[in-house]
Design goal:
There is one protein chain. A hairpin with a 5-residue loop joins strand 8 (198-206) and strand 9. With 339 residues, this protein is of the alpha/beta class. It has helices at residues 17-22, 40-44, 70-78, 98-103, 121-131, 150-165, 173-176, 225-228, 243-248, 261-273, 297-310, 315-338; strands at residues 57-63, 85-91, 110-114, 136-139, 145-146, 184-186, 192-194, 198-206, 212-217, 222-223, 240-242, 276-287. The two termini are 18 Å apart. The chain contains 12 helices and 12 strands. Strands 1, 2, 3, 4, 5, 8, 9, 10, 11 and 12 form a 10-stranded mixed beta sheet that branches. It has a two-stranded antiparallel ribbon with strand order 6-7.
Length: 339
């Protein structure tokens, strides 16, 4: 069920941006940005001192003409209480000062990949996944924000679920979290429980100018392929997912039929890999842009439909899904407008 309540969400303050640009915890280098790796040796090198038991995360941030918002988005990454990450910014042939804004940050965990031509957000995310150094992927759009404990809470959720689902000793959980095995685990009672294919969180909202709205998107503790067709509650900028899964399920690119590429991807993953695990806390701060794809309701509905059809969802199932989508979407945005 979706409902709203007033909560306090910690957001990066504008006055702290300059401080975060120059006071990062990582070791400094002479360059804060890189071209795409030219060799396997470069790709496999670590920019951080290794901590064997840590789970490292590659954060993929596509950007196109994002100069107005991207600094604040990067600051929300730098403010994370969980330090074991790299940030890959994929510039999709921006025409503004996006690259200049990114290179202003003095942190060697930040890399820039430059697309020679504008290829769209799906292609940008796919490139980021391909170039990622680590086994876990988190997505963050260049106008969205994270609360400072977003990664820490999701990593802890993942470890806890691994511990509950596995017969292994807790000391083995961290090392095996990197495993590509997405099989079922037997429980102590002899039953089978499934390892989540991806993790997602609830969301808070801000307007285009960054003013907080009181509406909160609440999410269930798990999401199946059947349930996501009724309403997509998996916000892309909240997702934490294994890299091997994203390599098996790259975001679809179809310029003839515009679609919600992230929604299409989650459908494919949940159908093939298993359920998603939700954390019902507003750890994502989603920016509502007036000219976003979702702001045009007619276009958004068509993109929702195309996302199902690209996954070959049966026609009757897709039609029923559209009824749920429209009814729940109207209720959701009516609540947002009232705030």
């Amino acid at each position: 069920m979706l409902y709203s309540r007033k909560v306090h969400v910690n957001m990066p303050q504008a006055e702290n941006i300059e401080k975060l640009k120059t006071n990062s915890p990582a070791e400094k280098t002479n360059s804060s940005a890189q071209e795409p790796n030219s060799s396997a040796e470069k790709k496999n090198s670590s920019v951080l001192k290794s901590k064997p038991s840590a789970i490292y995360v590659s954060i993929v941030m596509p950007a196109y003409n994002s100069a107005v918002t991207i600094s604040e988005s990067i600051c929300s990454v730098l403010a994370q209480t969980y330090p074991y990450w790299e940030l890959i910014v994929i510039d999709d042939a921006s025409k503004d000062d996006t690259i200049k804004k990114v290179t202003a940050f003095q942190d060697d965990r930040i890399r820039i990949l430059k697309q020679p031509t504008n290829q769209g957000v799906a292609a940008a995310r796919n490139l980021g996944v391909q170039e990622a150094r680590y086994d876990w992927i988190a997505f963050l759009d260049s106008d969205d924000l994270w609360t400072k404990d977003k990664l820490e809470k999701q990593i802890q959720q993942m470890i806890t679920l691994e511990r509950n689902l596995s017969l292994q000793q807790p000391s083995d959980i961290l090392s095996n979290a990197y495993s590509n095995d997405s099989s079922f685990h037997k429980t102590p009672c002899g039953g089978n429980m499934q390892r989540p294919s991806l993790y997602y969180t609830g969301s808070a909202f801000i307007d285009a100018a960054g003013h907080p709205l009181s509406y909160i998107l609440h999410v269930p503790s798990q999401m199946t392929a059947k349930e996501i067709l009724k309403q997509n509650l998996v916000s892309c900028s909240s997702v934490l997912v294994r890299r091997d899964i994203m390599l098996r399920h790259p975001m679809p690119i179809d310029r003839r039929k515009p679609l919600h590429e992230d929604f299409a991807t989650w459908i494919g993953i949940l159908r093939a890999e298993g359920l998603a695990a939700g954390l019902d806390e507003p750890l994502l701060i989603y920016r509502l842009q007036k000219k976003s794809k979702s702001s045009n309701k007619g276009k958004a509905a068509m993109m929702h439909w195309n996302a199902m059809r690209v996954n070959q969802i049966p026609l009757l199932t897709a039609l029923i899904s559209m009824i749920f989508y429209m009814e729940r979407g109207v209720r959701k945005y009516a609540k947002i407008r009232r705030k």
